[in-house]
Amino acid sequence: MGYQVLARKYRPQRFADVAGQDHVTRTLMNALSQNRIAHGYIFSGHRGIGKTTIARILAQALNCRTEVGSAERPTPEPCGVCDSCMEVRQGNAVDVIEIDAATNRGIDEIRELRDAARYAPSRDRYKVYILDEAHQITEAAFNALLKTLEEPPSHVIFMMATTQPEDIPQTIRSRCQHFSFHAVKFEDILTQLRMIAGEEQVEAEDAALALLAEAGDGSMRDALSIMDQAIASAPTENGRAVLSGAQIRELMGSVPNAVFERLLEAVAAGQSAELMEQLNLLLNAGHSPSSLARQMVRYLRNTLMAKLDGEKTELMQISDDERARAARTALLFTEEELTRNLQIVLRTFDDLNYRQEQRFHLELGLLKLVHAQRLLPLEELLSGVTSGAGVRNAAPVSGPVASSSPRATASPSRPAPPAASPAAPSLSPFGNAGGGWNPGTTTKPTIKQSAGSAPVAEMERPGSVTTIAAEIEGPATVTAAVAEREEPAPAMRVEAPIESAASPFRAATPFPAASSLAPGYAEALTEGALAKAPETAPARVEAASADSLRQAVVSALANGGHQSASQLLGSGTWTLDVSSLRIEVAGMGKKMLSLTVNAAAEKIIRQELQRLGGPARFLVVPGEGSGQGQALVAAPLAGSVQEAALANPLVQRAKEIFNAEIRSVVDLRIK
Fold first, then answer.
1. Which domains does the chain possess?
2. What DSSP element (H or E) covers 69?
């Protein structure tokens, strides 16, 4: 007889020899012992895991001529030496008919099978029909077999093996006993390969056998086929083939997992250039982009499993060395990052199947891994973790301090005030995110003294992006500077007498004060023709006039369809001079202010001021918390949904971080 491949040569001939299917073999052995033989069986599962093999062993056991309990056959296992067992093993048994359903799938073939099933077996106890790839049978053919399968003759047994049991009609499945086979475990395949290597006089490294077992992917037949090929290509020493890990990788065209470990180390370190250099070496060595992406998907999957359940988890079917490598890589990433990386590589692998320039798409996919490391979760941003309580993201105050207001000096005999004690911690996750700036509760001033300079008090506002620094020039003067992260305003100098030692900044003008804006900064943001703010503030008129203008302008804007501008200006601070009207809006940047108070809104404001006999010139400028209300939405009714939404700490924190504007509040519960 000629050469026989390993998968056929070492095919199990007894139930005990089948690896990884104990739940099936145990049930069938018990059924044979109790003589509870069904007339129909369905064996389903992955390819190469023993479905047809167990069907043949069961056929041998059913027709074995040796009596159960004898010396030759102490258990229901087939004896393997009688004529019936030998004929089934060789494939020429008269009463065991094995049919390839992929080619005999029509209704005519099934009708012939049904007619032949009525006759008694020629010699053995049972007439056994083994239908391989049974899901290929057509629906009409299954319908022709249905009645025979439901009430077959007592001497007929049907066994159907399939990889797609869902394609078999439910009417057929309900009439058979269904056994779902498991994929063979890595350790079982490795044990079988080690045994076969010894039988075949092959010297194999453990790493080589582990690679073969992993390449089998749960299929014993696939692993044996690759091993057969590896033995044929292996070098020989003293007439014996020698299998090594490097030779197996070269044969399969795979890359050592150490390469993927280095690639992910470069990803974790954000080294895009190193990542591209490593990939270039792999591609120049002849590895296909699709193969590299497939192997990286498997490595990332094992890394994620090691992160979830540790190095010794059964979720990984790999060797101990590879388990340790996956565990090392798992330490570089969080569970969320590994999940995101696996999703990116999976999508890249899918793209490579229908793309022309596979190399470019693989490079792009790996660069996405590096860029994804820089993403921050939204909840982390909202909780203020990344902002360092408002200090880390604040721009430093630098440059000279400008002054645009007269100096106010207190008594020189007043001592310097001590630093205020820090506020008690807030129960809210964002601290005092909802309220305005209160120096007595949310500000933590500290005094710094350097050689040859005056003491410096630095004030930090928790949960904001603004840092306020105050320099104490003497016992009676306070100089303040404001810096913002985006579009920093010019530094300004505000001086006011200190009223008490307990709150050193209580008497200071709010930042920025209406009278202390630097020259050239307070020009109108919504229309270039408007004049700049005056250098010196003239005499003020009564506040009632400013309030009446506010009500009229806000109503006109609302009636004109400018709800956002109406709410914005309604929450601002209105200052009416003899020749101009100044509106300061808190919590609003220059760009957003120019978009909200546009040319159409300006026209309505100008017309309303002319109608009421107000000043011909008006200014709309951003403020720093000095407005009459911090909210950009008009004051809501007590107990309303608007009030609850505006009071939510998450909403207030989001407004502060993103410099956001609340234009409307919608109750989704209202249908």
1. 6-180 (3.40.50.300), 186-252 (1.10.8.60), 257-372 (1.20.272.10), 543-635 (3.30.70)
2. none
Which helix (DSSP H) or strand (DSSP E) does residue 204 occupy? strand 203-204
Give the three-state DSSP class for 458: strand
What is the per-residue burial (b if ≥16 Cβ within 10 Å, else e) of 587-615? bbbeebbbebbeeebbebbbebbeeeebb
Distance CA 12, CA 28 (A): 15
What is the per-residue pLDDT across 25-49, written as a single tens digit (0 to 9) for each?
999 999 999 999 999 999 999 999 9
Contact, 490 vs 497, CB < 8 A?
no
Instruction: Give the Cα separation of 465 and 433 in Å (integer).
Output: 12
Tell me the two tokens of residue 24. 């099936």
For the chain, give the number of residues.
671
Strands 477-483 and 573-576: unpaired
Q: Sign of the CA dihedral 444, 448, 454, 456?
A: negative
CA distance 332 to 52: 45
- Rounded to the nearest 5 percent, the helix, strand and coil shares of the chain are 40, 10, 45
What 3-state DSSP class applies to 424?
coil
Percent of the chain predicted with pLDDT > 90: 39
- φ, ψ of residue 472 in degrees (nearest 5): -90, 105
CA distances (Å), origin 539, targets 533, 574, 620 = 14, 15, 19
Cα–Cα dist 161/127, whole Å: 17
Phi-psi region of 116 (alpha: psi -120 to 50; beta: other; left: phi over 0): alpha
pTM of the model: 0.55
Helix (H, G, I), strand (E, B) or coil at 362: helix
Torsion from C-alpha of 559, 562, 564, 566, nearest 10 degrees: -50
Tokens of 138: 């057509």
Which has the closest alpha carbon to 54: 26, 87, 74? 26
Written as six digits, the tokens of 489 are 């305003």
Residues ≥6 apart with Cβ < 8 Å to 613: none
The token pair at 550 is 């506010």
Q: 582 forms bridges with which residues in the sheet?
A: 575, 619
φ, ψ of residue 364 to 5 degrees: the values are -65, -40
Tokens of 512: 């920025």
> What is the model's pLDDT at position 669?
61
The pLDDT tens digits for 547-577 are 888 888 888 888 888 877 888 888 888 888 7
Contact predicate 503/440, CB 8 Å: yes
Q: Which of 622, 654, 342, 322 is nearest to 487 (CA)?
A: 622
Question: What are the pLDDT digits (tens) for 162-194?
Answer: 999 999 999 999 999 999 999 999 999 999 999
Q: Report the pLDDT value the prediction gives residue 635, as an integer from 0 to 100.
A: 57
Handedness of CA 111, 113, 117, 120 (dihedral sign): positive
Report how far residue 494's alpha carbon sits from residue 481's, in angstroms, rounded to the nearest whole number: 8
- 250 neighbors 236 (Cβ within 8 angstroms): no
Chain centre to alpha carbon of residue 165: 33
Question: How far from each other are the two terminal CA atoms of the chain, in whole angstroms?
Answer: 81
